[in-house]
Amino acid sequence: MRKMLSFLGTGSYRATHYRHPDGEEVYETPFVQEALVEFYRPERLYVLLTPGAERNIPKDADRSNWEALRERLEGRVELVPVRGVPEGASEAELWQMFDLVTGCFEPGDRVIFDLTHGFRSLPVIALIAVAFLRVACDVRVEGLVYGAFEARDPETGVAPLYDLLPIVTLLDWTTATDQFLKTGDAGDLSVLLREVQGRWYRERSGVARSELPQHLNRLSDALEGVSAARALVRPLEATRALGALRGVLAEAAQEFDRWAPPFRLLLERVRQDCAAVALLEGAEPAEQVRAHRELIRWYLERRHYLHAALLAREWVVSVIALHAGGDWTDHAVREEVERALNAQARWEQGKEFQEAALRERVAALPEVQRETALRLWNRVGQLRNDLAHCGMRAEKVAAKKLANNLEGLREHLDAVAQAFQLM
Fold it and tell me: Which of 217, 221, 229, 289 lies closest to 259 in space, CA to CA?
């Protein structure tokens, strides 16, 4: 249902010509609500009333503003008074106001929000409530309107209606960027960037094609690449994708001021998110292994424990393979390192083992390297196995304790990195 939320004050309202935000239609009325009903055709209009607005009779009038508005809108819209509106002078009143506003809407509603006669803090509180409803109840804000009586044309007396809806997108940019930084999911941020570039290419508004944004779609693609690589634990791909993203951010930076101002303000935080793990093509193997350790830490900081455990195991293999020389990414080389680590682990536990020749590759390492690597290998192997079985075995660890154990991987990672000079 399309609904409108508005405020009604106690002042004397005089007939005014209000112009539609698109600049075409004009409607004369003392009440901005009547003009908005004419322009937007809501099915229901909620009017927030203080006791004074409902009962007080303005100077030179014979009825209250509420009675006059109700008479003018009779039969044109379902008019619903929202009584008992507090002034917001205390925390309790703020929450009372929140409840009054949220009680007006249901999932799927489309809302036009009229700020014109908001009293004190009420418009801010109501707007925050509507922003909350966008997420909690899938309420869609179609207009954020202000009737600028004081800005009326001195010759014609026409007052503009301003639609401030574009500022609501700032909430979308904030939420999307926060989601990307906290979880690594760039889905919403990518969509916003594509929408900006697509909208300007559709509308153009007299702007030459060569002046339109060129890099926002590329940035969207780069963010999606980073998001997918980290979500699917592809460290080689993730470090390259983050390096590419850093380059695209630099190329697109000049476009943000004009075409996507909210992202310009959030840009530095995105850059910082890339810094520790981003690598350019052709980076040295040691740089790549260091970056993979930073990626494990990134997973742990965001409580992506399964990702961290999977990559930590592979990182031990990478460290040993790199130390031995040769191609540390080659599948056969890595398989031999795994077998050597397993053989040494079984030997130290007094268990039977095979691959004696391979075991010597690990046994021959300097003591501090051998001990730190084996300690991490054994630890992460236990944790990964517990995660892989999803708690469906007798010797499972409770989730909270498992999370604490996984947090402890940082200490082991640092010890190995220091032993192999990969800090």
Answer: 217
The 8 Å CB, 24+ separation contacts for 63-68 are: 65/8, 65/9, 65/10, 65/11, 65/13, 65/31, 66/8, 68/30, 68/31
Q: Which residues contact 78 (CB under 8 A, 6 or more apart)?
A: 43, 44, 45
Kindly state the tokens that stand for 292. Answer: 């993979």
Residue 179: count other Cβ atoms within 10 Å of its Cβ: 15
**Helix segments in 327-419, DSSP class H:** 331-348, 356-363, 367-388, 399-407, 409-419
Token duo for residue 149: 């009586």
Alpha carbon of residue 162 to chain centroid:
28
Q: How far is CA 202 from CA 112, 196, 305, in A?
A: 25, 10, 43
Domain ranges of the chain: 2-163, 169-283, 301-423
pLDDT, residue 400, reads: 94
Residue 232 has pLDDT above 90, yes or no: yes
Mark residue 175 as left, alpha or beta (left: phi above 0; alpha: psi -120 to 50; beta: remaining).
Answer: alpha
Q: Using a pLDDT cut of 70, give the percent of the chain over it.
A: 96
Class of domain 2-163: alpha beta
Beta pairing partners, 6: 47
